Automatic annotation (TrEMBL), chain A:
SUPFAM superfamilies: Folate-binding domain (SSF103025). It comes from the Bacteria. Pfam families: SoxG. Transmembrane segments: none annotated. It comes from Streptomyces rugosispiralis. Gene3D superfamilies: Heterotetrameric sarcosine oxidase, Probable tRNA modification gtpase trme, domain 1. This is Sarcosine oxidase subunit gamma. Signal peptide: none annotated.
From TrEMBL, chain B:
InterPro entries: SoxD, SoxD_sf. The lineage of its organism: Bacteria, Bacillati, Actinomycetota, Actinomycetes, Kitasatosporales. This is Sarcosine oxidase subunit delta. Pfam families: SoxD.
Length: 204, 98
């Protein structure tokens, strides 16, 4: 016999890291060696694939209001949208608001390509504070120094063993890490552990 | 640890890539005409040179593209990386006894 459930069909959705929200809040460090971690759940992500040389690229860029970035690490932004380069024919549109995929699909028209809402694929972690870069450098082999990596940059890489899309927002520095939902729990615990060092005094 | 330059993403750590075996192994033009021995040669037999070797790699945690790498099997030095549609680059004649 099926177990009776209390959940109604319209139960509020649960984010992949809802169970760690308190742990992440408690892990925050303040002061000169401060760093905070929080989840920014339910952001909209739309995967976009098309040939950059086709007319569809122009039409989609017009719909988004911004040209598609052409190089690894680059992003473009317009209104609520941020477009991240994933590959030579693949992009991810990030948005704080819902994205009208129908409109984008119409812009693609008959040209080969795809527009897919993949919001549930990843969740978003925000790591911010003066030592945020040091925390990331414990597990990310990429050069994150300001002369190479800065606000508006986004790359696919790994943090610890977890593949993430890493994006820098500002000079605080604030980073956004987008792991796949099923890896988010591990990554959040990994970051909480990496942050704990900065609670105590600096070891000379 | 190797530092491999992806033609799209630039130099990245070896751990971001996966290996795909020998490059420039074309699919048979008339597969139906091959006998078992020729199929075996196509599917299983690969070169094993001492020195520069062209091989396929995929940037799995980056742009997810396949590309070719010229790697020295003696020193593990990555000599060149190039896109799949590019020809194998000519190397300046390397010195030493190979």
């Amino acid at each position: 016999m099926a177990e009776p459930t209390d959940a109604s069909p319209v139960a509020p959705r649960t984010s992949p890291l809802a169970h760690l929200a308190d742990r992440m809040r408690a892990a925050a460090v303040t002061g000169a060696r401060g760093v905070t971690l929080a989840e920014r759940p339910f952001l909209t992500m739309v995967n976009l694939r098309l040939d950059l040389a086709s007319e569809a690229a122009d039409r989609v860029a017009k719909t988004l209001g911004t040209p598609l970035p052409r190089e690894c690490g680059h992003t473009t932004a317009a209104g609520p949208y941020t477009v991240v380069w994933l590959g030579p024919d693949e992009w991810l549109v990030l948005s704080e608001e819902p994205v009208d995929t129908v409109e984008l699909r119409q812009a693609l028209a008959e040209d080969p390509g795809s527009v897919v809402d993949v919001s549930a694929n990843r969740t978003t972690l925000e790591l911010s504070g003066p030592v945020a870069r040091q925390v990331l450098e414990k597990g990310c082999r990429l050069d994150l120094h300001p002369r190479v990596f800065g606000p508006g940059r986004a790359v696919s890489t790994t943090v610890g063993p977890v593949p993430v899309l890493l994006r820098q927002l500002d000079d605080a520095p604030t980073y956004r890490l987008l792991p796949r939902s099923s890896f988010a729990d591990y990554l959040a615990r990994w970051l909480i552990d990496a942050m704990s060092e900065y609670r105590g005094p600096e070891v000379p | 640890m190797l530092l491999i330059t992806c033609p799209w993403c630039g130099p990245r750590d070896e751990a971001e890539y996966h290996y795909g075996g020998q490059a420039h192994v074309p699919y048979p033009e008339r597969p139906a005409d091959l006998d078992d021995e020729q199929w075996a040669a196509y599917v299983f037999y690969r070169d094993n040179p001492k020195g520069p070797f062209a091989e396929r790699w995929t940037h799995s945690t980056g742009c997810r593209r396949w590309f070719n790498v010229l790697r020295d099997t003696v020193s593990y030095q990555v000599l060149a990386s190039y896109r799949l549609d590019a020809p194998r680059p000519e190397l300046p004649q390397a010195g030493g006894d190979r």
